[in-house]
Here is the input.
Amino acid sequence: MAVEFSTLLKPTSRARRLKSDFVVVLAVAATLIAVIPLAAVSLYVISSGAGVVSLDFFTQDPPGDLSAAGGGIRNAIAGTLEMTALATAFAAPTGILIAIFDTEVGGRVATGTRLFIDVMAALPSIVVGIFVYSLVVVTQGHFSGFAGSVALAAIMLPVIVISTEEMLRLIPRPISEGARALGLRRWRTYLSVYIPTAMSGIFTGLLLAVSRAIGETAPLLFTSLGNNFFTTDINEPMQGMPLLIYRNALNSAFPAARDRAMGAALTLVVMVLAFNLLGRWLVARRRPGRNPGR
Amino acid sequence: MVVATDTRQTPMAAVEAAQSDQPLPPEAAVLRLHHVNAYYGPRRVVRDISLDIARNSITAIIGPSGSGKSTLLRCMDRMHEVVPHARATGLIEYRGIDLYDKRVDPAAVRRSIGMVFQQPNPFPTMSIFDNVAAPARFNGLVHGRNEAADLVERCLRQAALWDEVKDKLRQSGTSLSGGQQQRLCIARALALAPDVLLMDEPCSALDPVATLQIEQLMTDLRADYTIVIVTHNMQQASRVSDRTAFLTMGEDGAGYLVEEGPTGRIFTQPREQLTEDYISGRFG
Amino acid sequence: MTARVESPSADSPLGPNDLRRRRFADGDLVFRVMGAVVTGLVLLLIGLMVAQSFQTALPVFDRFGVLGFITGQRWSPTFTVYGAWPFIFGTVLTSLIALVIAVPIAILVALLVTEFLPTRIGQPVAIVVDLLAAVPSVVWGLWGLLVLVPFLRPIERSIAAGPGKVVPFLGPPTPGPSYFVAGLIVALMIIPIVAAVTREVFATTPRLQREAVLALGGTRWDVIRRVVLPLGRTGLVAAVLLGLGRAIGETIAVTMVIGNAPRVGSSVFSPGFTLASVIANEFNEATEELHPEALIALGVVLLAVAVAVNGAGLMVRRHFERSAGRGR
Here is the structure.
């Protein structure tokens, strides 16, 4: 790599310094351009949605007709929570196990699996929705919250595998060598040393996966379909927060639907941010090996 | 607990055998290395080393950086191969068993040949008590509360740590000072009742006071265990060990054995010029 | 259960049986098998899903031919004519617009964070930019539909009336929802990932080379121009590919602002469709003959493109990490 030293040996001319400052200005401007929409979205959601949310909003179901005013989003909140919880129950142990398997086996098997998982993580979520539709909905013959959970689990799985693998890789060498030098069996080292040591990071990965799943619409479109009524039966079509927002937004010519969408959007953003920020805060607080011997 | 009960040699006799200049009789050697080579991938880092480790003695391995001392040590408990693409050839006999025999389980080897590392590494998510008790419990050496408590006390006493931590056994292993953590790691290793204790520069991360404590500990442990210590501190080697092996890096980048023998002789009448140069500080 | 080493009597040396073991024993075998089984099952399940979808889409490919389907310009469920081209066009156009907007911004943001700001300020800035990705797609779409579209309409109109008369693709019509707005929103959504990967790339610039330029009197921009950017070239390619991969898959936000017209638009301000958005839009009402199958066929096409782009991005990134690790 050739750096043209001759040009650098000239004294720093004003022109070059100005050029450098100009780039800084550009970079700041670009960052503002990136960040301002974030602020705009947040402000819009807060200002338009704040007036809509109320205790009733969380405890009542929407009216059968979207254009009618009143009602709430109870079924959507319940549906999202239930489907996400089930999805986590599917994805978390599976994802952690796959991450352990990859870390332990190494070599080409692990590289291949990891590539597959990476591609899976980048898949359009609507494609995931189609897949789960083909396998679950068609086989069962009906839409259901269960299918929705499977779709969400498929979205969460790669996130969990990747973050758990990262955490396991970050375990300091002294600890992993120490465990091996004691002649412990491999499964025992994972169970009693590695996983507890990486626990906070793994948990953070879980929270981030959950916050992602809560906000996903496309996987639910053809799996849980949506439901105007409140149900906790996982075998019935189920409403989810993003679905409700989507359907009401498409009808936003009606003020009632628009308001409902805004209120639900505010609620959704708060939920997503809560998990997201909680996860980040946990990482900052306790990293493995953060308290080495004094 | 494993005790060297060879009826023909008391511990004192073993130490004398170690310190004599005669070649070691086979029954006095607990570990025998024959033509050991170690590689990281294609690169050889240890070349053709043959060495006997005497029972109930402290053997020091000294030499400049890069001379393969740690690598050689790690070959003795099959920790070398844990690094990807690392391998070792040659014969390492432990009480007549080929450690690298296909039928041998590395984990079992490490239960008999323990290791203490340069950087103290107690498990951060376990208490002091569990750090000592858990590996023993996992290996089926103790059952139940009382046995575990007895083992913990016994090992912490052996490691000269009991008095300092007996009131805070439930605290995290990482809440101790560096020297205490290292003694905790020694206690943890002792809990498995190993035959041989390998120590890889155990004092290099410690202050002088803690270093002296560990050195005293080693001398006390010699009666029941065989200790092999890698150190770059020559004074330490001359203070503590019965036998010394001097390694240095050859022109091919691999470490080889220059000279080996009783510590007293190595430091006062070395047979090789290189040894003399190293000891008098002309290089390394 | 454990291999205990008996102290040797003087006469019988130990055999390897005392340190014995078949290679993996006790829980270890179970451990490995369980891990392999679970991983295999997941891979199998996914493979099954892909195969099922392929199978459903097959009649469509049979009817129109794979190439015919991809290049077909007409999408008319009532007449059972299905061609994917308008949607491929829409996907390409919106992704291009998104990249053109997002990549320069993302690179500049990454430069700001890694080169110009001290870490204490840079870290929070990076986190704020990352938060763009935390906003759910449907909320972006909502804002886009209700705020951005009306906001941009007069601007679009004036561009179309002015330069639009001369420059192709910038002309009328300007009904509001369009490729342009969709591209803009998608840009906002992919800035975080491009910026994050680019940040990692810049962070691997060897300190030595950086400091060499500074020590010779170079400005920060000199460092960037002569060291950071050239050394990070490959990594930047990966970042762009990964951003593109994310862009082509964006569904909900796009479908809310793109206008939903199954045609090849004549200008960036026309309404249109992307592969992802048409599936979202039409699937639940697809009752005509072969309509659902055609939509799934579109999904297969989308899958192929997404895997190709993301796979390429990942491999380039892996290659970059390996060569950066070796230290150039």
